[in-house]
Amino acid sequence: MLTIKPITEEFAICQVEDYSQVNLENPFVFTGATDEEKSLVCPSALIPENALTVDKHWSAFRIEGVLDFSLIGILSKISSLLAEHNIGIFAISTYNTDYILTKTADFQRALQVLKEAKYTILES
User: Fold this and answer.
1) 47-90 pLDDT per residue, tens
2) d(CA 35, CA 65)
3) What DSSP designation does 1 have?
4) Residue 105, helix vs strand vs coil
5) Distance between the two ends of the chain, CA-based, in angstroms?
6) Does the CA dihedral 67-70-75-77 come out positive or negative?
7) For residue 35, how far is the Cα from the chain centroid?
8) Does the model's pTM come out above 0.85?
């Protein structure tokens, strides 16, 4: 079974005008740009002034290790487990692994659900 590492930061999910006020070198800063919007996930302490919309109070964990692209269903299994317990997620994938955010109020319960499903939860 996979190992989960909680991240100690609290996060915000934002829509921004542009990324001019975002330091992309900061850890745990994730961006996404489409033809319709620019999104930012960042530690709450780093919310830029040009944020158009901000949703605060998110907590995150990552799946430890480097996940091979041939692995199938990792996010699906975790999201299904949490959905069965009415815990919504916001998922972010990087080249190496996946990060899953839940509302901070649901975070400890989410970790407990995963622990009961035999995921290893590291101390944060």
Assistant:
1) 999 999 999 999 999 988 655 555 556 788 999 999 999 999 99
2) 32
3) -
4) helix
5) 19
6) negative
7) 23
8) yes
